[in-house]
């Protein structure tokens, strides 16, 4: 299908983030803003009819029926429409100018997606216009162990570094199944099978264990006053894997089939790291109890299926069956297209399996925020969180609601009523 | 078997003859009608209490729809319609009832698993001019994708070849129920796509380039094909004329030798004669105008397809006075376009009086057809027009509006019952009738759901 070829899942994508943790950027000065007369869909504590949100210095300062705000605050009258947190996309490959996969070796954890981040990509804008405020830009799935992700806010028109999510934790992308075995198998290299895949992954992790042991030995010698001790060679690749074993990276694993979900969890136990989330996870519904027991989330599609063999058992009830069995579920885009209407994709879970409004909304807000590790900062309308908000012209969990305004850190970055691109912070050609 | 003998086998026996075209027309006609009653439920069914979205004559609250012998026997408000005594009466209070949806471009039956080539029969790319390819020759009635699509209320679809060729082969019109391809094929060779989007160029890499590497190459190749087909048609007409000419002065009859058969050129003849519809696909305004010029040069009867990036020439589009299959509206805008440039095309066309239809342009995602229409309403398309664009308008475009596309007496009973707005992603389809037969609401996917959801 033409759409299939556009989707990164098949194209196999990869990204890595290379700054240790993203560096905070000095906040711009913000005017106080009050959004009033909205149906405030908080995600964490229900809806507030005719509610208000007070934004101070880019943060949510108050939420309620009425809020105390200074008289000088800019007022946005929502006219009874819906206000949600900004949508969070926990699986994206936009803004990488096709530098998604370093598909020259099956183990490339030292790739930093930050190095490829193309902050001028209009896909950021188009996602923003669909209500997305935060995205996790991941390496693709050509490699068993891909690179390190970058977390962005969709502040289109801002400077590159101003678009990085300050202080976001580091994530690394693993992959399994068809893509690695096809990419390397087609070159007559290891891996060309699923056993090859996991052998490559295990070998890399063992190598990282040895590397850590060598450094531990060296440090112990130095500590004992052995001045002749020779330091091991620094190795970016093994350093990154060591950070996986040290629990310093959130492990995001591209994985479809039920058996592989189980194998990946067994491997994580064997090496003592945690899996943060399985991505795609189209067969999660078959082993949802196991995922729930391990506290592993999934980032999945609502109803996309059949694009390859390992997507053949995908069913649109996957999200809700998994959720009912205790799995934290996010609906993600993995595509420039879906990223523009994740609200509709989430709403499909209300139809396929009967998710409640809150449950559906969580799948594109607080749950993906947890997967990225920024749920203390975004993903709900709570005091102290970043003022990343979407004002909708209609009910967002439907075919019909559209973002009228999107605020990030309290600033309006998208306003549909404006001419041109609808962006106050961007003008074409400037 | 009677008319059933108009099967693929029968077709093969006529292939290679000048009668091919006529044969196919007859075949299409036969296939169109023979199965109308094949699946009809013997028992009369009454859907009572629902909100009828008739498409043709508004909405009827608390309506009654009577299905008998595979057709809609009566439709109207409660009280105004007599409920037959022996009928199965189904209470559909609180539900919407609407005609089966029609997808104006799909790849159903041509693919199973996209990445597995052994399951794909989507297009021949060895040449760009392939009008003698017929998707009905590949149509796989047992595809697992078909039940998935119809569970969401899609009951009819155009099956088209994929789009990498300028003339990739001829479309078929199907109904999404039946035990065999013959049961499901409603009209073979219903139309021929002519794709001029630039994607048909053979210029993947500079090293691998071959003709036609450019749009001028594509256009000249198309022009030559239509000229050849016209000459071919003329040669055969000349032959037939000579053969029947008995007025020679010496009283002797000519015995001219017939021209050589050419399937490729033969396939183009009914389109050159304006007997069948070309689906003219272009995206950019420049391509659109080139393609239209070409179609006019050969007096082709056409409908437009896509026109995704032709926002600046919509008045020109309206002046052509042809319907547009618009979309996919999810196509990314160009970087210089506003985010909603493509989303707004349906409403902008509608404002100019252009007839529009939506298509899934997919196989696995056919079930999402109504959501494209729904999303277009978010950008201003009136709801009625959006629903019409997946029911009655496509029925009109494909020449089947006497049988499909609305809840009217005498039409085929392709009827959907759902718990809400057909265009909303949250709406659950509860029942689907195809030719009056209530199809089981099961698919490979529901079987997997049922197997694993209980654990």
Secondary structure layout:
The complex is a heterodimer of chains A (430) and B (455).
Chain A: H1 2-6, H2 8-11, E1 33-41, E2 47-56, E3 59-64, E4 74-77, E5 82-85, E6 87-92, H3 122-129, E7 132-137, E8 145-148, E9 150-153, E10 171-175, H4 178-185, H5 194-223, H6 236-245, E11 250-255, H7 258-271, E12 275-280, H8 288-294, E13 297-300, H9 318-324, E14 329-331, H10 342-351, H11 357-362, H12 366-372, E15 389-392, E16 403-408, E17 411-415
Parallel strand pairs in A: 1-4, 1-5, 6-7, 10-11, 11-12, 12-13, 13-14
Antiparallel strand pairs in A: 1-2, 2-3, 5-15, 7-9, 8-10, 15-16, 16-17
Helix pairs in contact in A: 5-6, 5-7
Chain B: H1 8-14, H2 20-34, E1 45-53, E2 59-68, E3 71-77, E4 88-91, E5 96-99, E6 101-106, H3 145-150, E7 154-159, E8 171-175, H4 181-184, E9 185-195, H5 215-244, H6 263-272, E10 277-284, H7 285-297, E11 301-309, H8 314-320, E12 324-326, H9 345-351, E13 356-357, H10 369-378, H11 383-388, H12 392-397, E14 415-418, E15 429-434, E16 437-438, H13 444-453
Describe this structure in words.
Chain A is of the alpha/beta class and 430 residues long. Chain A has a single domain (2-24, 87-375), classed as Metal-dependent hydrolases (TIM Barrel, Alpha-Beta Barrel). In chain A, 27% of the residues lie in helices and 21% in strands. In chain A, helix 5 (194-223) crosses helix 6 and helix 5 packs parallel to helix 7 (258-271). Mean pLDDT of chain A is 93; it is low at 1-20 and 24-29. Chain B has 455 residues and is α/β, with parallel strands linked by helices. Chain B has two domains: 38-100 and 406-455, Urease, subunit C, domain 1 (Roll), CATH 2.30.40.10; 101-404, Metal-dependent hydrolases (TIM Barrel, Alpha-Beta Barrel). In chain B, 29% of the residues lie in helices and 21% in strands. Chains A and B meet through helix 1, helix 3 and helix 10 of A and helix 10 and helix 13 of B.
């Amino acid at each position: 299908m033409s759409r299939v070829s556009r989707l990164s899942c098949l194209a196999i994508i990869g990204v890595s983030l290379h700054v240790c943790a993203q560096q905070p950027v000095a906040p711009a000065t913000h005017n106080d803003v009050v959004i009033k007369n909205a149906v405030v869909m908080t995600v964490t504590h229900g809806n507030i009819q005719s509610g208000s949100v007070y934004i101070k210095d880019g943060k949510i300062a108050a939420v309620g029926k009425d809020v105390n705000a200074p008289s000088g605050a800019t007022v946005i009258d929502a006219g009874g429409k819906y206000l949600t947190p900004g949508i969070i996309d926990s699986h994206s490959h936009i803004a990488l100018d096709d530098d998604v996969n370093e598909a020259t070796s099956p183990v490339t954890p030292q790739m930093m997606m930050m190095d490829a981040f193309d902050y001028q990509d209009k896909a950021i804008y188009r996602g923003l216009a669909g209500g997305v405020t935060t995205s996790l830009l991941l390496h693709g799935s050509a490699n068993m162990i891909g690179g390190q992700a970058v977390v962005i806010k969709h502040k289109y028109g801002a400077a590159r570094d101003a678009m990085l999510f300050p202080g976001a934790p580091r994530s690394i992308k693993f992959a399994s199944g068809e893509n690695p075995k096809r990419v390397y198998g087609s070159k007559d290299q290891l891996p060309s099978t699923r056993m090859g895949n996991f052998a490559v992954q295990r070998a890399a992790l063992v190598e990282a264990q040895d590397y850590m042991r060598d450094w531990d030995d060296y440090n112990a010698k130095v500590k004992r006053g052995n001045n002749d001790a020779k330091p091991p060679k620094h190795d970016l690749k093994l350093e990154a894997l060591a950070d996986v074993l040290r629990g310093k990276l959130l492990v995001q694993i591209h994985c479809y089939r039920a058996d592989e979900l189980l194998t990946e969890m067994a491997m994580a136990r064997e090496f003592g790291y945690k899996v943060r989330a399985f991505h795609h996870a189209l067969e999660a519904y078959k082993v949802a109890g196991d995922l729930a027991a391990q506290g592993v989330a999934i980032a999945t599609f609502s109803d996309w299926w059949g694009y390859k063999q390992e997507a053949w058992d995908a069913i649109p009830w996957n999200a809700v069956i998994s959720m009912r069995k205790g799995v934290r579920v996010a609906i993600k885009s993995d595509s420039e297209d879906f990223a523009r209407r994740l609200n509709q994709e989430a709403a499909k879970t209300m139809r396929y399996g009967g998710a409640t409004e809150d449950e559906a909304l969580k799948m594109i807000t607080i749950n993906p925020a947890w997967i990225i590790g920024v749920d203390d900062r975004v993903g709900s309308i709570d005091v102290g969180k970043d003022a990343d908000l979407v004002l909708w012209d209609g009910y967002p969990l439907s075919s019909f609601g559209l973002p009228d305004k999107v605020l990030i850190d309290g600033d309006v970055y998208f306003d549909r009523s404006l001419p041109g691109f609808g962006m106050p912070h961007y003008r074409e050609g400037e | 078997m009677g008319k059933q003998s108009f099967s693929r086998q029968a077709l093969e026996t006529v292939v290679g003859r000048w009668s091919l075209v006529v044969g196919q027309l007859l075949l299409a006609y036969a296939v169109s009608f023979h199965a109308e009653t094949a699946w009809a439920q013997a028992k009369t069914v009454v859907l009572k209490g629902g909100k009828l979205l008739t498409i043709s004559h508004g909405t009827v609250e608390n309506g009654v729809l009577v299905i008998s012998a595979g057709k809609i026997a009566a439709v109207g408000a409660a009280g105004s319609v007599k409920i037959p005594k022996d009928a199965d009466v189904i209470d559909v209070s609180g539900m919407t009832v609407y005609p089966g949806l029609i997808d104006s471009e799909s790849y159903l039956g041509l693919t199973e698993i996209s990445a597995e080539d052994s399951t794909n029969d989507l297009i021949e790319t060895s040449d760009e001019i392939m009008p003698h390819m017929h998707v009905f020759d590949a149509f796989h009635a047992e595809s697992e994708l078909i039940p998935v699509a119809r569970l969401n209320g899609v009951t009819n679809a155009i099956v088209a070849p994929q789009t990498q060729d300028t003339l990739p082969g001829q479309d078929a019109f199907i109904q999404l129920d039946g035990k065999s391809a013959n049961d499901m094929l409603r009209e073979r060779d219903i139309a021929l796509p002519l794709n001029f989007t630039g994607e048909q160029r053979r210029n993947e890499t500079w090293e691998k380039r071959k003709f036609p590497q450019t749009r001028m190459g594509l256009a000249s190749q198309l022009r030559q094909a239509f000229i050849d087909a016209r000459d071919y048609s003329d040669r055969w007409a000349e032959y037939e004329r000579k053969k029947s000419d008995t007025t020679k002065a010496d009283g002797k009859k000519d015995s001219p030798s017939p021209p050589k058969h050419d399937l490729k050129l033969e396939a183009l003849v009914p389109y050159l004669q304006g007997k069948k519809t070309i689906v003219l696909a272009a995206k950019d305004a420049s391509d659109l105008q080139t393609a239209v010029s070409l179609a006019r040069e050969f007096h082709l009867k056409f409908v437009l397809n896509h026109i995704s990036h032709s926002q600046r020439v919509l008045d020109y589009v309206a002046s052509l006075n042809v319907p547009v299959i618009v979309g996919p509206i999810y196509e990314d805008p160009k970087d210089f376009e506003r985010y909603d440039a493509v989303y707004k095309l349906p409403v902008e066309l509608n404002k100019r009086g252009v007839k529009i239809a939506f298509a899934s342009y997919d196989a696995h995602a056919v079930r999402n057809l109504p959501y494209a229409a729904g999303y277009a309403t978010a950008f201003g398309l009136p709801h009625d027009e959006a629903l019409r664009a997946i029911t009655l308008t496509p029925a009109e475009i494909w020449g089947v509006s006497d049988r499909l596309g609305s809840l009217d007496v005498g039409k085929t009973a392709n009827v959907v019952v759902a718990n809400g707005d057909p265009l909303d992603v949250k709406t659950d389809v509860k029942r689907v009738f195809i030719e009056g037969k209530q199809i089981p609401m099961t698919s490979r996917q529901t079987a997997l759901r049922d197997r694993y959801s209980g654990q």
